Amino acid sequence: AQFFWESDQRCRLADYLPKLERVTYESRLGSYRDKVERVRSLARWLTEQWFNLGMVQAHVAEADRAAELAKCDLSTEMVREFPELQGIVGGLYAKAQGEPDEVSDAVYDHYRPVGLDDPIPRNLIGCSVALADKFDSIVGCFGVGVVPTGSSDPFALRRAALGIVKIVLEKKLPVSLSLTIAAAAKALHANPPKRTVTPEQERQVLDFLIDRARFVFREKEGFSYDEVNGVFRAGADDLVDARRRLDALRAIRKSKNFEPLTVSFKRIRKILEKAAIPPGEAQQISPELFESDSERSLHGAMRSAAPRVNEHKRAGHFKEALEVIAAMRPEVDKFFEQVMVMAENEAVRKNRLALLAELLREFTTIADFSEVGGETRS
What we know:
Elements: H1 2-8, E1 24-26, E2 30-31, H2 32-49, H3 57-69, H4 77-81, H5 88-96, H6 101-109, H7 124-143, H8 157-171, H9 177-190, H10 199-220, H11 225-233, H12 239-252, H13 258-274, H14 293-314, H15 318-326, H16 329-338, H17 346-362
Antiparallel strand pairs: 1-2
Helix pairs in contact: 2-3, 2-7, 2-9, 3-6, 3-7, 5-6, 6-7, 7-8, 7-9, 7-10, 8-10, 9-10, 10-11, 11-12, 12-15, 13-16, 13-17, 14-15, 14-16, 14-17
């Protein structure tokens, strides 16, 4: 090892970069030299998203430098002899050659985590490079049709996806999965070999990452299947936000109003599905068509609750928002006790369906109660 160290140190780590042109990453995705440019672009973009975490323009330059050096050790004698040391060797060489600690540590750590029990990179520069490398691998491979199967995952994309989830959750990073996937696709198109990732392939990558996140929340963080389903149906593009909503849902489900309300929400969803009402579309409600006090009462409760729920959401107070929703249980119960939704009068029927559709649309953005059972299941 001493021989290889001394041999490799005859030139700077960056001098190994051109040699990566001869190291193929994936035949349709080019060489590792090509991959480095994509990772640099994405690492810079990610770091710029974190200025609210204290990152500044100087950190963008450090992320760029770390990404530039991250794969250089693949061309060294040391890594050719001991491939399991890739990343580690690059980090040690970078440190020995006077690179800033933020940069050398990022190079050393950028393959981390290699498992859910492995530590994540030590600093935010390392996190940006590690995330950029992993997003590039997944988006690139999906873009050329290399998708993990039950028996094959040659580029360890599942491990990369779990690494993304672990880094984001442990560091509480504001990462939009969909926007980062799009940024990775843009880098793939802008740099040789200039591959195009279709919107459908981007959606497949998002589903793949969300599936890994579901696994982590269930198996590692102890949330039940229905809690995860309820929160993820309301959206899971921001995993830190999703975890906070999961915490809120777990807390609120112990309340007396929760289980009856989940039953009502399940009933509403079935009614709307049977009536072929598209989910999520804003509905026009005509109060003048209400025929009973229970309709007016529910509509009034919704109009009163909506701004309070939105105010709590904006403040990140998800438990309080869910408590406001759960407090509508008496009005929801009264509606179903006294109103026949599928009235003979078409205008009245459509108006009642619109009322229920708007209830579901407005109050399932934190968690979809229709996905959650009354009892906690492991």
